[in-house]
Each structure stands twice: as C-alpha cells, then as structure tokens.
Write a structure and sequence with these properties.
With 207 residues, the protein is an alpha/beta fold. It has a single domain (4-205), classed as Spore Coat Polysaccharide Biosynthesis Protein SpsA, Chain A, CATH 3.90.550.10. 31% of the residues lie in helices and 22% in strands. The chain contains six helices and nine strands; from the N terminus they run βββαββαβαββααβα. It has a seven-stranded mixed sheet, sandwiched between helices. The longest helix is centred in the middle third of the chain and has 15 residues, at 76-90. The radius of gyration is 16 Å and the shape is globular.
C-alpha cells in the first residue's frame, strides 16, 4: 500500500450551515478545508479535492479538483469513486484515503494507523472510528473496487456506505480523543459547531 492518494471530500451541499459553504469558513486564520489539506499533505504523497460546482473557489489550495463522476449528488461514496477514477488516470496508487472537508482536528497519525490496521486485519476497506462511533467518510479504499462502486451507485441506485463496505473484508480503526478530550473527528455542520471549533482551537493554543 505504498502508493496512496489523499482525497478530501467536499462534495456536500452544506445545508445545515444556513448559507455559507462550511469548508470555506475561517478557523484560526485558515479555512476549514485548508486545515484538512495541510494535515493530509503531511501524511500522503499527493492530495486532491472532490468538490462540485465552480472549482475556482478552491484555487488558493493549489489542489486538483475532481467533480463527482456520477450525477445527482450521490453522497460521500460518489466522492470516493471520483477519487478512485482520478487516481486510475493520474497515479500508480493502489488505494485512496479519504478525509472530510469539515473535520479540522483529525489525527496526524490517521494515515499510518489506517494502513497498519488494514494490513494487520487483512481488510480491503478500513474505516476510522472514535468513541465507539464509526466515521465512514474517513476510509482507506482499494482503487480496484471502482467499477463495483460505480455499479452500486448507478445500477443499484444505492448510496448507503455501509451496505457497500460490508460486501468486502473490512475493519474499524479506533482513534483516541485528543487533548482536552476532543473527539478527533469532530465535524462542523452548523454555526454552533463552528463556535465550538473555535473554542477547541483556543484550548489547544493555551496548552
């Protein structure tokens, strides 16, 4: 699994943020998505962004932007598929590893732990978890499943992540809470979540 592409999933519609696109909101002087990109860049050899709409809004990141390759805003699995298709064309990667665009505190050891556990548990797909809660948008995915995933989304018209995952050998990788008992996969969906994220960041700075 030496060849690995990082894929930031930002294809959602931000409905609960009441207006602004959440990934472009600022946290401690950087957009949420910039926090994710910087972290993932340190853990992988290459990173791209899955997002729909005008790609120019992400131009400051300096990342390739891949739109969903299936129609209809088919959810996170559509972003996984888009990442797989980009990797097939542009890299020699065997796997992609995904991260959500609204989760600014995910661990610096995320990629390493996912790879280790997938190998040890002989899993084709690995998903992150914390506090006994699974986070399917944080996953390690073999690119060889791209055609099967496309069939699942298009032919079967199914978007349920776990129904796809459970077709293959899979494992959960449990991550411990960060400093101040912060869930490493705390995500920003609402204005209140953004306020909480700022409080969390301030707590880290005061340590």
């Amino acid at each position: 699994m030496a060849d690995l592409l990082g894929v930031i999933l930002a294809g959602g519609l931000s409905r609960r943020m009441e207006g602004p696109e959440k990934s472009l909101l600022e946290l401690n002087g950087k957009t949420l998505i910039c926090h994710i990109a910087d972290n993932l860049k340190h853990q992988t050899s290459n990173v791209i962004l899955n997002a729909n709409g005008d790609a120019k809004r992400f131009s400051d990141l300096g990342l390739e932007v891949q739109k969903d390759t299936v129609d209809g805003f088919a959810g996170p699995l559509a972003g996984v598929l888009a990442g797989m298709r980009w990797a097939q064309t542009n890299t020699k990667a065997t796997h992609i590893i995904t991260a959500a665009a609204d989760t600014p505190f995910f661990p610096e050891s995320y990629v390493a732990q996912m790879l280790i556990q997938a190998i040890e548990q002989k899993a084709e797909i690995a998903l992150a978890s914390s506090n006994d809660r699974r986070h399917p948008v944080f996953g390690l995915w073999p690119i060889k499943l791209a055609d099967e995933l496309e069939s699942f989304l298009v032919d079967e018209n199914n978007r349920k992540i776990m129904l796809f995952v459970e077709r293959y050998a899979n494992c959960q990788v449990e991550f411990k809470n960060l400093e101040n008992n912060v869930d490493p996969f705390f995500n920003v969906n609402t204005p209140d979540d953004m306020t909480k994220a700022k409080e969390i960041m301030l707590g880290f700075e005061q340590k």
